[in-house]
Amino acid sequence: MNLKLAPFALCLYVLCACSTPKNITYFQDLNNPDKQSITQQNNQFVPRICVGDLLTITVSALDPAAVAPFNLPVVSYPKQTEQMFNGTKEIGTSQAMQTYTVDSEGNINFPVVGKLKLADKTKQEAVDLLENKISELVKDPIVNIQIINFKVTVLGEVLKPGTYPVNSDRVTVLDALGLASDLTIHGNRTNVKVIRDNNGKQEVVTFDLTKSDFFSSPYFYLQQNDIVYVEPNDKRKTQARYSQTDQVDLSVITAITSSISVIASVIVSIIAVNK
């Protein structure tokens, strides 16, 4: 009787060993009615201009000539391109807008207006400041400001760690992890850190991605130059069964188990026949 149960016991053991690891699923409490309101909160985070930011600022109006002194000239720089004919190379040119760098004191030097402090202001606050200054000289100016060096860095147990430029001013922790192609199976989803430089002071906040509470965190939206770090989980490494590397081992174990099961079944049949 014990020999007959042996193949089934062995298969049951393998299936249990290959069960899905816990703490892999994100937002496990979203089905909880008490948690539904968290995902519906309207986070009003707006990024602020920081020291070291590179800004493009354009001014327009009904009279383009009137605002020309407030716009930096477009610059040309050499760009080497290869010609497909005769194997020759040609030097071309590209045009780009000049940028303003927010200095260590949080200022920029704007044409005509002079020095302006923009650090710690939102883009809209900076636009309002410039429009008020320029409107003293030009009727109904329109100012547009873009932060062109907005980037976040994702490190640790993700598939593609690195620094990623961001076109939008509103990027979340989940967006950053998406840029890095998500966590690996070995990433600790209960201990994801956001590291932020706040006026020279390092701030570290920890998120648990298996819960939805972090949606309401003021750190859910990232600022430029934030770092997202995914801590490795050594215990999870040994238990993971579905990573690309471990799938090979699992296939070998499954093949061996199947062979043992067949051999055990043959032995049981032979014993039954001899009886």
From TrEMBL:
<dbReference type="GO" id="GO:0006811">
    <property type="term" value="P:monoatomic ion transport"/>
</dbReference>
<dbReference type="InterPro" id="IPR049712">
    <property type="entry name" value="Poly_export"/>
</dbReference>
<keyword id="KW-0762">Sugar transport</keyword>
<dbReference type="GO" id="GO:0015159">
    <property type="term" value="F:polysaccharide transmembrane transporter activity"/>
</dbReference>
<keyword id="KW-0449">Lipoprotein</keyword>
<keyword id="KW-1134">Transmembrane beta strand</keyword>
<keyword id="KW-0564">Palmitate</keyword>
<keyword id="KW-0472">Membrane</keyword>
<keyword id="KW-1133">Transmembrane helix</keyword>
<feature type="signal peptide">
    <location>
        <begin position="1"/>
        <end position="19"/>
    </location>
</feature>
<protein>
    <submittedName>
        <fullName>Polysaccharide export outer membrane protein</fullName>
    </submittedName>
</protein>
<feature type="domain" description="SLBB">
    <location>
        <begin position="151"/>
        <end position="230"/>
    </location>
</feature>
<keyword id="KW-0813">Transport</keyword>
<dbReference type="Pfam" id="PF22461">
    <property type="entry name" value="SLBB_2"/>
</dbReference>
<keyword id="KW-0626">Porin</keyword>
<dbReference type="GO" id="GO:0015288">
    <property type="term" value="F:porin activity"/>
</dbReference>
<comment type="similarity">
    <text>Belongs to the BexD/CtrA/VexA family.</text>
</comment>
<keyword id="KW-0625">Polysaccharide transport</keyword>
<keyword id="KW-0732">Signal</keyword>
<dbReference type="GO" id="GO:0046930">
    <property type="term" value="C:pore complex"/>
</dbReference>
<dbReference type="InterPro" id="IPR054765">
    <property type="entry name" value="SLBB_dom"/>
</dbReference>
<dbReference type="GO" id="GO:0009279">
    <property type="term" value="C:cell outer membrane"/>
</dbReference>
<feature type="transmembrane region" description="Helical">
    <location>
        <begin position="250"/>
        <end position="273"/>
    </location>
</feature>
<keyword id="KW-0998">Cell outer membrane</keyword>
<feature type="domain" description="Polysaccharide export protein N-terminal">
    <location>
        <begin position="48"/>
        <end position="147"/>
    </location>
</feature>
<keyword id="KW-0406">Ion transport</keyword>
<keyword id="KW-0812">Transmembrane</keyword>
<dbReference type="Pfam" id="PF02563">
    <property type="entry name" value="Poly_export"/>
</dbReference>
<dbReference type="InterPro" id="IPR003715">
    <property type="entry name" value="Poly_export_N"/>
</dbReference>
